[in-house]
UniProtKB/TrEMBL annotation:
Pfam families: Abhydrolase_6. GO terms for molecular function: catalytic activity. This is AB hydrolase-1 domain-containing protein. It comes from Dactylosporangium matsuzakiense. Coiled coil: none annotated. InterPro entries: AB_hydrolase_1, AB_hydrolase_fold. Residues 23-150 form the AB hydrolase-1 domain.
Length: 178
């Protein structure tokens, strides 16, 4: 794993593989660089650089100022460190890639299942409560609400909120190293 520094000084680790034009791969939520090994192997002809997002692997913590802008900073830092002009983002990593592309023109950008709502396709009625929880410093409670209402948790959204809270507590206390 190589390491670069993001705009705020946070260490961002990434693994590189292959030969050819540089391609930054941005994992989705609850994923690490190694989860994309098979994906990278299916891309002969590219020099891939799969980053470990903040809070994962050897990358630094998300920190109090964490935001989608920090995610974009991290992607831009890896692109600059590797000389890459191509970006692929999956899920939340796709949202980060889109934000990075607002600040830098890439030769190529591909996102798969980015976390965006197009024309109301995604129920966001829970966002005011989510924002209230964040503002009150209740980050785990906000994440539990996100998991339940976005239906992105690996359990049915019909399970009680305590299950989503337990998942959030596990993920935030055990870092995403699996």
């Amino acid at each position: 794993m190589d390491v670069t520094r993001s705009a705020d000084g946070t260490a961002i680790s990434y693994s590189s593989n292959g030969e050819g034009p540089g391609l930054v791969v941005v994992p989705g939520n609850n994923r690490r660089a190694h989860h994309y090994d098979a994906f990278v192997q299916a891309l002969p002809g590219y020099r891939t650089h799969v980053l470990d997002r903040r809070g994962r692997g050897a990358s630094g913590p998300q920190g109090a100022a964490y935001s989608i802008d920090r995610e974009a900073d991290d992607i831009l830092a890896v692109a600059a460190a590797t000389g890459s002009a191509l970006v692929f983002g999956h899920s939340y990593g796709g949202l980060g890639a889109l934000h990075a592309a607002l600040r830098r023109r890439f030769d190529g950008l591909v996102v798969y299942e980015p976390g965006v709502s197009l024309g109301g396709s995604f129920d966001v009625s829970w966002l005011p409560e989510f924002n209230r929880r964040i503002a009150a410093g209740r980050r785990r409670a906000a994440m539990a609400l996100f998991l339940k209402r976005s239906r992105l948790a690996p359990v049915p959204d019909t399970v009680p909120m305590v299950v989503h809270t337990s998942l959030t507590s596990f993920w935030t206390t055990h870092r995403i190293d699996g």
